[in-house]
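Hey L., structure's done. Input below.
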Amino acid sequence: MKKLGIVAGIGAALFATAASAADLGYKKQAPVSYTRAPAFTWTGFYAGGNLGYGFGSVHGRSGGAFKDPSGVIGGGQIGYNYQMGQTVLGVETDLQATGIRASNTAAGVAGAKVSQPYLGTVRVRAGYAVDRFLPYLTAGFAYGGMHYKVPGVGASTTTNYGWTAGGGVEYAFTNNITAKVEGLYVDLASKSALNNAVKGGAREGIVRTGLNYKF
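Output:
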């Protein structure tokens, strides 16, 4: 019995030593945590530039005196978007210099020319976001210069006002860089110039691309 007690005591000591060694060898690891990347949102201010082409016609009393004007346009835009679910509402204003111009027709005075030195808009936008892809419609106020030069009469520039409507698609390549392709119809009301010697406005289509930085 005494021997059994000694053996039992030795066994208990060995078991306790092994258990202590096992506890020392095991190091509890902290749970791994994952930080989910924030979802992209169209909400925010943005600014950028655009480049495109415009073409159309001169209307009004003097419309028949000029060929249909056309030319390159380019400028900048600023705006703000607000996203609610997949609906994106925004406002944008832009201003661009244009090379839209035309000379006289057979019905006009020889050497007469009309050009549009600048064009601007202030518009609302409404789109439906599919993650980083945003198709949208847009409409609002438009204004632009009409410069006339008529031999023997003189030269004059008017600022004509009207409206615009169109649509486009925009894609966000990163959280800050977006690009768009846009088409607009612009209708500027006719206005007299050169002491009422000419009176005209413009109806034109604008196709352009744009690049924006979202803040």
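The chain has one helix and eight strands. Helices lie at 2-25.

-- N.
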